[in-house]
Structure formats: C-alpha cells, structure tokens
C-alpha cells in the first residue's frame, strides 16, 4: 500500500509542511514517486515515521532523532515499550479527560451536534494540551478563550500570517509588524501576563505536530512573529542607541528572545513559590539574567542604563513577554542578594 503525502499527513495528524521538512533534513524520505512526481510512502516509510514520532515524544531533537535512526540506534520494539510506559503514566489524565467530555455532553444537550471533524479536533487538542498544561491552567485558558472572542479572531490571524510567509514577505515589512502587534494583543487578552503560559504554548506548538495540525501554528510561524516583534523593537531602539549598540542588539536580540521568555517564566515560578531573593535558585537565575543582558546588549553599563530608560519610556516593548512590574522588583532584590553573596564569597577567599 502506497500513500501520497497529503493522505499520509491527514491520517497521522502531521502537516504536509512537517513531512517536507523531514524529507529536507534526511529524516524520512518517500520510497518512490509517481510519474507526475508525487511522493509515495510505503510500509517501511511509515514504520520509520513511527520511530521518529516515538523519539520526538521522548524529548529528542530532530537532529538527535536523525542521528539515532541513521545509526541503527532506534529499536522499534524498545520504543513501543517506552511508549506503553508513557501511556501508563497518562491513565489518570485519561480519567480527567473523560470527565471533561461528560461535561461537554451535558452542555451540548438540545443544541446542534458538532460534526465528526470538530469532535476529533477537540479530542486531539485536549489530549495534546494535557501534556503541557495542568487541569487548572486548561480551565483558565478555556474560560478566557470563550470570553475574549479568541475563537473568532485566531484562525483569521493565523491565516494572514501564513499568507505573508508564503508570499515571502519579510518580517520587517509593515504588514508583518501589524500582524505581530495584533498577535500579541490577542494573546494578552486571552492569557494575561503570565509568561509561563506563553512559554508552554510556544513549546507545544514547536514540538507537537498534533497541535500544529489543529491550530496551524508551528515553529516557523512563531519565528516569523518573533522576528517581526524584534524589528518593532529595533525601530524603537534606533532612536536611543548608537550605531554599534543597535548593531549588537540586531545580531543578538532575536536569538535570545526564546531564552528571555523561558527566564521570565522561571522567574514567575520562583515568585509564586515565594522563593527568597537570596535562595540558591534565585541567585542562579540572576547569574543567567546577567549573562542574557550582556549577550543581548553588550557589556557596557552605560548601554544597559539606556536600555532600561527605553523600556521605562516604552513599556509596550515588553508586551507579550509576561514581564511585569512586580517581576522587575523581584529581579532588583535578587541582583542585590547576588551582589552581597559575591562580596561575601570574596571576603572568605
């Protein structure tokens, strides 16, 4: 049995774009093509694809997955056993999912029955979400999504961004910047200012092909949005930084955006746990913060003062990051504790 790429993508919940990418990096190649050039996948191709998805599910990167498969290091029976163990750990989550479906059934009583595609999409997305979000977080997201008009706006926004990408519009284009602002505004309206939500959603859409197939959002699209946001920030910094400072930020700012988001998320978690500024976990995060600042804007303290002044004058630059005033105060306390800790260590020496 041979499957064309569109049929294969539909049946396994991946996007055609993802299968194209797998082919480009030498991960999964179609065994043959039709006379017209259409890709055809056979049983061995699908088995290899199973190995890929299994390894990805165990946390391996695409590059690590490719190296393991090409090195004959991925025994399918062992991978299946590992998958079974993972499923065992998910049984409790499945019970919760059933309860949610029962509640959905009650709500649908007397209303129009959703078609099969809507049911399948809902089931797949709920199962995907449970891998990344707690039950409480999902409830919060679902409530805010319903109240914010997200369901009406989101598909159109994703389609508009994808259209720019397919037309090879650059992230610096005015249209791209506008859509990036619209993206951030909708995310803020839906998810508030918690950077942990943003970080988890980013991870889900970058690594989970089921989520990508349902929402239309993948790593390439997220990178396009981040690049457009970076261009917006460069436009503002251009009025305050000198040429060398701006050049450094243009080179390093974009590549650190994901790291900043993860750092903000870790910071918020420390605060929620009521971790003291002098705690080792806080001090470790502050050291990483110092490294990020230096790598993003350079080592000149005068530049750092400029950057802080720009952020004070243009708080919109941090929209979508989840960084709030109370987090800034916590960082200031953490940096003071780090300075005291380093001074004490020098005295002991």
Layout: helices, strands, pairs:
Elements: E1 3-4, H1 5-12, H2 16-24, E2 32-33, E3 39-41, H3 43-57, H4 62-70, H5 76-89, H6 91-108, H7 116-129, H8 135-148, H9 150-166, H10 174-191, H11 195-207, H12 209-215, H13 219-237, H14 243-252, H15 257-272, H16 280-297, H17 301-313, H18 325-348
Antiparallel strand pairs: 1-3, 2-3
Helix pairs in contact: 3-4, 3-5, 8-10, 9-10, 10-13, 11-15, 15-16, 16-18
Description:
This protein has 349 residues and is mainly α. The protein has three domains: 87 residues, Multidrug-efflux Transporter Regulator, Chain: A, Domain 2 (Orthogonal Bundle); 39 residues, no CATH class; 213 residues, no CATH class. The protein contains 18 helices and three strands. It has a three-stranded antiparallel beta sheet. Strand 2 and strand 3 form a beta hairpin. The longest helix has 24 residues. The mean pLDDT is 81.
């Amino acid at each position: 049995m041979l499957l064309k790429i569109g049929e294969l993508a539909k049946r396994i919940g991946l996007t055609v774009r993802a299968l194209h990418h797998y082919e480009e990096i030498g991960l999964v190649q179609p065994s043959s093509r039709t006379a017209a050039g259409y890709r055809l996948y056979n049983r061995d191709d699908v088995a290899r694809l199973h190995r890929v998805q299994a390894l990805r599910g165990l946390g391996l990167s695409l590059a690590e997955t490719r190296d393991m498969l090409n090195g004959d290091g991925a025994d399918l029976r062992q991978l299946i056993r590992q998958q079974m163990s993972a499923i065992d750990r998910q049984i409790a989550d499945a019970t919760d999912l059933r309860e949610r479906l029962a509640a959905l059934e009650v709500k649908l009583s007397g209303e129009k029955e959703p078609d099969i595609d809507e049911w399948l999409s809902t089931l797949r997305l709920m199962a995907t979400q449970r891998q990344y979000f707690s039950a409480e977080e999902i409830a919060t997201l679902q409530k805010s999504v319903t109240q914010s008009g997200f369901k009406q706006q989101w598909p159109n926004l994703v389609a508009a961004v994808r259209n720019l990408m397919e037309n090879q519009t650059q992230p610096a284009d005015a249209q791209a910047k506008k859509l990036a602002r619209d993206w951030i505004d909708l995310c803020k309206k839906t998810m508030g200012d918690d950077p942990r939500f943003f970080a988890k959603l980013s991870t889900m859409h970058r690594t989970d092909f089921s989520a990508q197939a349902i929402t239309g959002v993948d790593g390439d699209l997220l990178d396009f949005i981040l690049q457009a946001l970076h261009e917006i920030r460069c436009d503002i910094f251009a009025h305050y930084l000198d040429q060398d400072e701006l050049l450094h930020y243009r080179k390093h700012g974009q590549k650190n955006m994901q790291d900043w988001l993860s750092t903000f998320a870790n910071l918020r978690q420390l605060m929620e746990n009521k971790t003291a500024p002098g705690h080792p976990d806080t001090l470790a995060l502050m050291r990483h913060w110092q490294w990020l600042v230096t790598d993003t804007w350079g080592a000149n303290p005068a530049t750092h003062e400029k950057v802080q002044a720009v952020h004070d004058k243009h708080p919109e630059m941090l929209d979508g990051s989840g960084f709030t005033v109370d987090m800034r105060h916590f960082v200031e306390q953490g940096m003071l504790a780090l300075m005291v800790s380093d001074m004490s260590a020098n005295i002991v020496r």
